């Protein structure tokens, strides 16, 4: 059976992405280091941060001070919209790497297509990858038209990952199917709907059947759909609980119930997916 520290997805460049990670969006810097250390202690091997989050430094401190070898920890950070462009991307990446205090980043993502200059930006990321400073490159909040335009212009450098808001309550099936067809791994952020749907009666009923919490069922749903997933918490008990999702399976019938929730189309985050393509 898969475990928290062995469950990985193979990316289109051959690198392996942990299926479960810790997200640190909007996590105060004073809480970030202890949350990351707690996650690593409980078997998490993926930490997801971003320049926008202003806590890269604390993530790096946790990774460096943990007893887990650096080679076993997958660190993701992201390029913010205001830093798009070739020169700007390289400078922004160097700043992120310096804040992290690491020799390389495992995954660098374009945070959204909203910054424009997307081809210049992508070329810079390819260059950084070829220098060995980044292991894998990908995107976040890209829709089908963004990915199609990028593929048409740069067919030899398809994103390894597309990180998007995803839960059973959000209809992203068309985008998910496209990514699967193109060999792009989907990573789910805000899988717990910021708590908004945790008391939803059908979800609670399934959780009771599984003898798990509603949050654990939502995380497990992502795994069974084949996604990588990055729930956020700074609470050590919840971090441990969120990681305890490898000892059960949601039944096929209950997965169908959860999948049917997409008609409710509950989004709890921004939606850059509708942004026009800006090469």
Observed structural traits:
single chain; alpha/beta; two-stranded antiparallel sheet; 10 strands; globular
Summarize the structure.
This protein is an alpha/beta fold and 279 residues long. 39% of the residues lie in helices and 15% in strands.
Explain the overall architecture.
The chain contains 10 helices and 10 strands. Helix 3 packs across helix 4. Helices cover 39% and strands 15% of the residues. The strands form 2 sheets. Strands 3-4-5-6-7-8-9-10 form an 8-stranded parallel beta sheet. The protein has a two-stranded antiparallel ribbon with strand order 1-2. It is globular, with a radius of gyration of 18 Å. The protein is an alpha/beta fold and 279 residues long. The termini are far apart.
């Amino acid at each position: 059976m898969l475990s928290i520290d062995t469950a990985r997805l193979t990316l289109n460049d051959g690198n392996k992405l942990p299926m479960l990670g810790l997200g640190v969006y909007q996590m105060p810097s004073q809480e970030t280091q202890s949350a990351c250390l707690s996650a690593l202690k409980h078997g998490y091997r993926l930490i997801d941060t971003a320049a926008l989050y202003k806590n890269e430094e604390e993530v790096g401190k946790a990774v460096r001070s943990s007893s887990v070898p650096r080679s076993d920890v997958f660190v993701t950070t992201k390029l913010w919209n205001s830093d798009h462009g070739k020169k700007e991307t390289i400078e922004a990446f160097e700043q992120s790497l310096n804040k992290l205090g690491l020799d390389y980043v495992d995954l660098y993502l374009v945070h959204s297509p909203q910054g424009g200059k997307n081809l210049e930006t992508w070329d810079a990321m390819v260059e950084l990858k070829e220098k060995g400073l980044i292991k894998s490159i990908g995107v976040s909040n890209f829709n089908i038209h963004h990915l199609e335009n990028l593929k048409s212009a740069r067919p030899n450098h398809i994103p390894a990952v597309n990180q998007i808001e995803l839960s059973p309550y959000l209809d992203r099936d068309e985008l998910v199917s496209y990514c699967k067809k193109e060999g792009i791994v989907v990573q789910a952020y805000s899988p717990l709907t910021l708590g908004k749907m945790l008391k939803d009666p059908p979800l609670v009923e399934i959780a009771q059947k599984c003898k798990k919490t509603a949050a654990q069922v939502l995380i497990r749903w992502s795994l069974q759909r084949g996604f990588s997933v990055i729930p956020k918490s700074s609470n050590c008990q919840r971090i441990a609980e969120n990681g305890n999702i490898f000892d059960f399976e949601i039944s096929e019938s209950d997965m169908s119930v959860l999948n049917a929730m997409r008609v409710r189309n509950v989004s709890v985050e921004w939606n850059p997916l509708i942004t026009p393509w800006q090469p």
